[in-house]
Amino acid sequence: MSTPDFVAALTEELGGRCRVIADGDLLASYRQDMATVVPGGLPAAVVQPRTTADVAAALRLASSYGVAVVPRGAGTSLAGGASAVDGCLVLSTEALTTIRTLDPLDRVAVVEAGVVNADLDRAAAAHGLMYAPDPSSWEISTIGGNVATNAGGLRCVKYGVTRQSVLGLEVVLADGRIIETGTRTTKNVAGYDLTGLLVGSEGTLGVITAATVKLHRRPLTPPATVVAAFASLEEAGAAVASIVASGPDVSLLELLDGVTLRAIDDWKRMGLAGIEAMLVVQVDGRFPDDADLVASLCAAAGAVDEPAVSTDPAESDQLLAIRRLAYPAAERMGQCLVEDVGVPVSRLPEMIRRIDRAAATHGVTVLTVAHAGDGNLHPTFIFDHAGDTATGIPPEVAAAADDVFAAALDLDGTITGEHGVGVLKAHWLERQVGPDAMALQRAVKAAFDPSGILNPGKMLP
Questions:
Q1: Which pLDDT band, with edges at 50, 70 and 90, does 279 fall under?
Q2: Which residues does residue 330 pair with via DSSP β-bridges, in sequence order?
Q3: Which of 3, 27, 127, 302 has its CA 20 to 30 A from that of 119?
Q4: Between β-strands 250-257 and 365-371, what pairing exists: parallel, antiparallel or unpaired?
Q5: What percentage of the chain exceeds 70 in pLDDT?
Q6: What is the CATH number of domain 99-217?
Q7: What is the pTM of this model?
Q8: Would the CA dihedral through 56, 58, 61, 67 be positive or negative?
Q9: Where exactly does CATH 3.30.70.3450 map onto the chain?
Q10: Torsion angle defined by CA atoms of residues 201, 161, 218 and 286, in that order, rounded to the nearest 10 degrees
Q11: 3-class DSSP state for residue 260?
Q12: Where in the chain is the domain with CATH 3.30.43.10?
């Protein structure tokens, strides 16, 4: 059956109750996500369902016509997970924006896939609760995309990644069937853990339309923020090890390397010259002395000045702003490839040295920030122009990134901690998991999506 016939059938069935985009510049705007180095194909159509039934109808049509479907939330993927392929249907969940229930007693919410992360957190705050996962894109990224990529964020060191907050899912399969996984209970061992399997599956197994998520009690007092500067990466690494080992109740533990700090200082003139590493730490627990303990551990590890400590919300925001300036500072320097690897916390300094070595070997500028408390690093590769490869990444940048992935695996780590595999790392997945596990993953994909229409080219090449 032809693509025009599919678009006509889609418009006839769903056009009266959903937005269907089939031509014009707006259609082309759905080619890419935020991984702009992935060119993306031109979709045949975009549909914005308003209900789960609409999603099911769209998938039934796509399945019957053999049309590939690319699920998309807010398009904030940094791995090309929502990049379109030529002739596909982009199924956007951005109109599924209802918080169906929010139960303060059970500390559970049922939210549709298009609900923005920050909006859920604000709704929970009205009941003295919070939604813990907080990716950097939390003000624009949606719950469906967060679940599909198992997104992390700054508070992971205390609250875990998205998987730790998802109790159940509503999912539409490739043929249009609707399933529900999990329960609203904390304990549930009935059958295989399909919820855990679908979290992080990047739209390759089904389209997530709603999630049942766990909420946490909001801290009664504002977090205390500690910032400490170091003359060497080794001293900062020692401070991280001391903080993790000593057990202060930290909710955020971020590290910025010297290259990143110089980029920020060149832009904002914040007096960061001579600093080779900086830690930004927040404490939101029940123990008021924990911030002072963090500061003393940083000082003992060799902080160049007395660490700054503040419990004032405005001052804390100013201190945390140093961390939030890292990516904008990188963008000022050129086009960015933002990568995402993870290693055991004890290997963090060694991993940063390996990143620096890769940068020097290939003549590439790399800025590195890390969620130091859980060993997740984001090396950002800077370049001036698109290369001549299929992904638009210059060869020297691709080679440096490959060295970084290899280093992460050498250090008992992972090629992706929270961004996902997407397009950019699909060729690396088998190297991490091994051929037998890769075959099993392909079998799982075939069981959920036997025709292979869901998000082709992502995760499993």
A1: very high
A2: none
A3: 27
A4: antiparallel
A5: 97
A6: 3.30.465.10
A7: 0.92
A8: negative
A9: 224-325
A10: 160
A11: helix
A12: 3-92
